[in-house]
Write a structure and sequence with these properties.
Helix content is 41%, strand content 16%. By secondary structure, the protein is α/β, with parallel strands linked by helices. The structure holds zinc ion.
Length: 256
């Protein structure tokens, strides 16, 4: 079974003590691929070198919308150069986050559009982080069309999901669906066609119900897969195959 983690921050210090063990244990459990999205420019080099050292780890490069105060204009030029040299599988994670206190929405929008331009220039998909801003994101994507990507940790409405799908996006689901109280999210994860879904952990953040208060890990992705399969009344292996095929298609990896 091939399980594809489309969003895993395995490069972060939270994994410094045991990264090798986590990656090899995850692989034993079937998690053969992880996309590692970037957060700030100073992390790109390390992220890429960790990915190069491990087959199945795939870098995405970009500037995270929660850290706008750390991004400088020169980072966009640097991003273009780094993408040119390292050929990541996606631009990400990028987006709009209106949920955080004191978000500089204008700056987020400027950085988003500059990075969508780069994705168009390099014909790369994008990994989106969006909170409380789906309608603005969808309007931006209609104006600046990219070849597709993932809407990570999706928590919008069914109508918004459909609009992302129409724009070539897949919706990412992970540990949050294991929380019994997440009824709206669970319903959404059942209503969407399997062709629209990708799996993700967002490790070390967003742990599932069984790991509340702990570090999230790609080792838990098989658990999240099983919960999703159970909710959807589907066979876990079939769902693993479908979501991995979706991820391969999004990130241009070809089929198995
Ligand atoms: Zn993330």
């Amino acid at each position: 079974m091939e399980i594809f983690d489309t969003h895993c921050h395995i490069d972060l210090p939270a994994f410094d003590a045991d990264r090798e063990a986590v990656i090899s244990h995850a692989r034993e459990l079937g998690v053969t691929h992880m996309v590692v999205p970037a957060i700030v420019a100073r992390g790109w080099k390390r992220l890429v070198s960790i990915c190069n050292e491990h087959p199945g780890l795939l870098p995405a490069l970009g500037l995270h919308p929660m850290f706008t105060s750390e991004h400088i204009d020169a980072d966009i030029t640097a991003l273009a150069e780094t993408v040119e040299h390292t050929r990541p599988v996606a631009i990400g994670e990028i987006g709009l986050d209106y949920f955080i206190d004191g978000a500089d929405r204008k700056r987020q929008q400027t950085l988003l559009e500059a990075q969508l331009d780069l994705a168009r220039q390099f014909d790369l998909p994008v990994i989106l982080h969006v909170r409380k801003a789906h309608d603005n994101m969808l309007a931006t994507l209609r104006r600046l069309r990219v070849c597709g990507g993932t809407a990570h940790a999706f928590s919008g409405s069914l109508q918004q999901a459909q609009q992302y799908i129409d724009l070539g996006f897949r919706l990412g689901f992970g540990g949050m669906i294991t929380h019994e109280r997440a009824t709206r999210l669970r319903r959404l994860a059942c209503e969407l066609p399997a062709e629209a879904l990708v799996l993700e952990t967002d490790a070390p953040d967003m742990p599932g119900a069984a790991h509340r208060g702990q570090r999230n890990s790609p080792e838990y992705l098989p658990e999240y897969l099983h919960v999703l399969a159970q909710l959807r009344n589907e066979d876990p292996e079939t769902l693993a195959r479908q979501t991995s095929a979706n991820a391969r298609e999004v990130f241009g990896l070809g089929s198995l």
